[in-house]
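DATA SHEET
Item: assembly model
Revision: 1
Owner: S.N.
Input lines:
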Amino acid sequence: MNFNYSEEQSLISDSLSKLLSDNCGQEARKSLLSDDKDHDPAIWAALSDMGLLGLPIPEAYDGIGGSAVDTMVAAVEFGRHLAFEPFLASVVLGGSAIQLAGTAEQKQALLPGIADGSKKLAVALLEPEGRFDVGHVATRAIKEGTSYRLSGQKSAVIGAPSADLLIVSARTKGGTPTESDGLSLFLVRPDTDGVTLKTYRLADGRAGADIVLENVEVTSSDLLGSENQALDTIEHIADLGTSAFCAEALGALEKIIGLTTEYLKVRTQFGRPIGEFQALQHQLAEMMIDFEHARSLIYEAAMTADSTDAHVRKKAISAAKVFLGERGRAICQNAIQMHGGIGMTEDYELGDYVKRTLVTELAFGDVDHHLARYAGQL
Amino acid sequence: MDINYTPEDEIFRADVQEFLAAELPKDLSDKVKAGQKLDGEDFMRWQRILGKKGWLAPRWPQEHGGCGWTAMQVNIYDEEAYVAGAPRVLPFGVNMVGPVIIEFGNEAQKVQHLPGIVRGEVAWCQGFSEPGSGSDLASLKTSAVRDGDHYVVNGQKIWTSYAHFSDWMFCLVRTDPKAPKKQQGISFLLVDMKTPGITVRPIITFDGMHSVNEVFLENVRVPAENLVGEENKGWDYAKFLLGNERTGIAGVGGCKAEFQKLLEIARTEKKNGKPLIEDPLFAAKIARLEIDLRALELTNMRMLSGSGSGLNGAFPSVLKVKGTEVQQRIAELQMDAVGTHALPWQQAAMDPAWNGDTVGPDYAIPRMPAYIDRRKATIYGGTTEIQKTIISKALLG
């Protein structure tokens, strides 16, 4: 076993870290928010130049052909620097949806555009009634000759406001929302009649939307891959996204512990640095113990995220998500507590990292969801 | 021992309910129930209504306008007020400076200040914390130098809740910088917020809210008659005050109201087509929390009714630690209960003046901001770590 970054991965990590630390500070994020911008086009262009937007995309489609571990290395940096760029939405979720489900023609038509950044995708899998279960699909796609008509609702679609193309799960067969048979994926252009985006910011400042589909007409060439058999693919897409969310959290948590450690050294009370108090030393130690164990599980999640062995993959992804949900939240809470009032303020960066971790913790499944899924694999 | 309410208590509860139904303005309770932002006037309007009824200061002696209620009655009132959606009574006048003036103030101070507090007409804030002091409160630096019949005050206060609409601030200042111990040489001053030299600057917390401030004091001239008690003895009065603060801080009434809200959300949200509350994993979390809440409520009653604990002065710390943990856990489970609806950040929608489009059910909107906001509960009024030190000192000496 080898848990170290390869030379190429260190290069990805270093160059991305340099780009983001130069361009992605708190001030830059604030100005994006006040200008109502989803992300910084200059950073997006730079990511494209570096080839990072093609990281998990095969070389045949102008990508780099990297693994989910390479994706993780990049996602850690996006989390560490709190970048808004829709890497996770377009490249990880969008790219893997096309790769896992698309026909050769669809891959040829879409993957090069994702890899060079000219096309941005967003993937809509969750629904209001389904909580975190991507297999719960009430959205219907009714076939009419060579076209389909889609109706339904999708929740918490990260990256949707700036997406050129949406990928939507819908039921082409079957009665109840949780039937595993009868699910399909569709390509939907957001400007099609009947598509309504309710856009918002996620808690961490990134752009998202809830989507309402009312009798939206798409053609049979917009069916992504084959009909009725999409559940396994949908779960795999979500797992790849979840692995990347976990990696973002790893970057954010590392920064949170770094800020806290620094603060314990410089903040004095009762005449000495508060880091000299054993009560706080033990809390800090516990944060680090949790962090290192989270890191191990998140590494394993990334190493299995590409696997088509659903049993192995689901256990690893859910284990990482449960641990992150419980212990990652505790790390955030301890960090705020040890900072005292300053940790509660908007101007101090800790809160931004806490919100990013919260988003990663809840997106694609909270602790209960993944605990139950893990238990289902015993 | 008897755990049941007496018939007199039930009559009292009915009286409270009748009063709340008649006098609590609906626009206020709507705001509170929706988790919307309250401004200074919202708080003060309700305090004036309570003041008119004579119910604002239940724990004060009757001669100063208190109610003479039993501990059980105070608890019943708190529960009913929270369930009805009454704004919380800001503690600074009624629970903090009021009892200090009653206990240690002179006759003139009682005449000047107590009626305004008990009638809910004057808003107070607390000038204790300073940058760099925090839980080491006694290290405060703000100086007050005697100049004729005034003190000249210079320094900075921080985390000053509601200073932006307060009329008066009670303030700890250093009057003897040469005192051998840092707890000595501190005095307790009452400061009119309109005095020249006072600047209030907002601090926005990362839930996007404004309730705390920085207060800058630059050559502020405070009349010497605004000194409470004796010069350099302010630490004793502050300790008396903090004991009172930590009692109210358990917030049992608020916990019970928020717990009810959690149950409503868990009954409304769906998981696999069934109410979330029927999910065994989530139900187990609610059950554990309810047990903690019950333990807190009973312990609070024990303290209010003067039952012995072997901890003497440290009993409030026991309540403070547990009460704030329960508050945080409720806010946490409320957020978890709304699932994906917690992800959109719609903090602007918590302003009643906002009329944009929202996503998801209305009850979901304040959940993540409230989770974030509650993190402060284990920090203010003396951190959990400080409370544990107080408890272990009471045991170990």
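QC remark: The longest helix of chain B spans residues 280-304.
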